[in-house]
Amino acid sequence: MKQIPCPCCSDTLYELRNISGSHAGWALSKDSTRLRSDRQGYYMKCPHCSKRVVFSTVSTVVGVGFGMAPKQICLECKDSD
After folding, report:
1. How does 58-75 read in b/e, with b if 16+ C-beta sit within 10 Å?
2. What burial letters (b/e) apply to 5-18, b meaning 16+ CB within 10 Å?
3. What distance in Å separates the CA atoms of residue 24 and residue 60, rounded to the nearest whole number?
């Protein structure tokens, strides 16, 4: 497992688990923060500070994946969760 910190508060935002086989790489663990989308794009709501952490699509060897955007503004998440 690999813990990924929130860029706004530094607590764990999500965890990645190593997957093996023909599509080896990393995937979100079952108990990770859910990746969401709305009109503004993809994001996760940090379970610790409630900030909106922006994600973007990235090309991978096996297709398209998601990565944390390099620039974060750390705004409050306005969703109803």
Report:
1. eeeeeeeeeebeeeeeee
2. ebbbeeeebbbeee
3. 11
Number of Cβ within a 10 Å radius of residue 36: 15
Q: What is the pTM of this model?
A: 0.82
Query: Which of 2-11, 12-21, 47-56 shows the lowest per-residue confidence on average (mean pLDDT)?
Result: 12-21
Tokens 């090309």 belong to: 59
- Mind listing the pLDDT tens digit for each residue in 17-38? 988 765 667 888 999 999 999 9
Q: How many CB atoms within 10 Å of residue 29? A: 14
**DSSP string of 5-51?**
E-TTT-SEEEEEEEE-STT-EEEE-TTSPPPEEETTEEEEE-TTT-B
Asked if residues 55 and 41 have their Cβ atoms less than 8 Å apart, the reply is yes
Tokens of 2: 């690999």
